Amino acid sequence: MSEVKVNKISPRSGTDVTLGDSGDTITVPTGVTLDTSNSTVTLPDGAVTNAKISDGTIELAKLSATGTKDATTFLRGDNTFASAGGTNTPAFEAYLSADQAISSATFTKIQINTEILDSDGNYDNATNYRFTPTTAGKYYVYGNVTAVSSVNNTVDNMQLAIYKNGSIYKVQELTIGNQETRRETMSTSAIIDFNGSSDYVELFAYCDVDSGTPTIEVYQKGTNFGAFKIIE
After folding, report:
1. In whole angstroms, what is the distance from residue 186 CA to residue 107 CA?
2. Which terminus of the chain is more solvent-facing, meaning fewer CB atoms within 10 Å of its CB: N or C?
């Protein structure tokens, strides 16, 4: 192997110097420091697979990482771009805008009809009164209901249930017994896994009265229903 020892290489004419020919490999031996701190090094796009940067920057276009490079992503340790943080959407909250009469001792769907929030249009507030999120994942689902009887001191039992796909998923129960009242308020919540396509939830209430007719009250938006996606 031939060896050339010089202190400086400069172009004979012009401003460019070429090292080697196409296909050649230029090797910098172990222990040698290539100091480009006062220079500009131009790399081809997708050329950087492993790099240690102690002072300076490398343009994102030069990286060979997979994923989408933009203002909303960051480069992970496994050389992939990922979205920063997360969002709690799809999400919704709606409330009952007019009192709803129900039958005694019968689970009845509450017609929560007025939306405060519906980030992805996944809540049906006009027909089925159900939330069908279009993104798969775990969601926090909650509901609050106030029930009142038309006759004083006749509410004997009240229940509030979250239905998933037409069946009870979770139910809360309040048995009044000998201390019957006219009005009761209940709350319930659950973490539910959705498939992002066909899974849906609805809010049902049950009110058993000894006499009179039970009604689900508006009560300053106190009868409401909502859900949001959990960031995992």
Report:
1. 14
2. N
C-alpha to C-alpha distance for 225 and 187, rounded to whole angstroms? 10
CB 54 within 8 A of CB 36: no
Domains located in the chain, CATH noted: 91-229 (2.60.120.40)
Q: Tokens representing 12?
A: 């004979």
The model's pLDDT over 128-182, given as tens digits with 9 standing for 90+, comes to 999 999 999 999 999 999 999 988 878 888 999 999 999 999 999 988 766 667 8
Instruction: Calculate the CA dihedral of residues 176, 178, 181, 187 and round it to 10 degrees.
Output: -10
Half-sphere exposure of 101 (CA within 13 A, CB side): 3
CA dist 156 and 139 (Å) reads 32
The dihedral sign for the CA sequence 109, 110, 111, 112: negative
